[in-house]
Write a structure and sequence with these properties.
two-stranded antiparallel ribbon, single chain, 7 helices
Amino acid sequence: DIIFEDIDRAYLGEKLEKESYTGFDAALDEEQQMKEGKYKKAEKYYDSIFEGIETESLPMPDLNGKAPEKGYLEKTMGLKEEAILSYCEKLGVTPNILFTGLFGILMAKYSNAEYSLFSTNGRNDSRLENTVCMLVKTLPVYCKFDPKTTVQAYMAELSEQMLSSMANDIFPFSDICAKYGLNSDLTFAYQAELSDDYPIGDT
C-alpha cells in the first residue's frame, strides 16, 4: 500500500516524505542484536514452546490406490465488520489474532487432533510502518484448544504467544525448522487490511 499511496501523492503533486528508518537501518540493528546475545535468548524462548512436541499437524495419508488430485476450495462467508470488531473488543484481541486462532481450531478439527501447528507472518517494529523493503518475518504458531478452555482464554494465550514470537524474531524461521522439525507447508496470512483498488491521481 505504501508504494501505491506515494504514487498517488506524486500524481497529485504532493510532497513525498523521505523514509526515517530504512531497511538498511533495520539490517544493521538486527546485526547488533545478534552481537548482544539476543539470538540465544530467542532460541530459549522457542525451546519453551516447541521442544519435544509433535511437529506434524496435517492429516496422515490414509488412502490406498490412485493418489487424490490437488484442487482449490473457496468458501465465502458474510460477516459484518462491525460484529467482528465488537467481538474482538470483547475478547481483548485484534482481528488478526481472532482469525489466526480460528484457523488454528479449524486445522485441529480437520486433522482430528488436539492442536495445530502452522506458520504466519508478522513484524513488531513500529519504525518500519512506512518502510519499503522485504520485511516479512515468518513465525511459527502453536495452537492447543482444550474443549474446557474458554474462547477468551484461548485467544489471550495465543495473543501472548504471537507478541512474544514477534519480540524474538531474531531467531529466524529457517533455524526454527532445522531445530524442531517444523515446516511452512501450512500457512495462514491475515490480509483484511490490504486493498485491491488503488486510486492514482485524478483517475
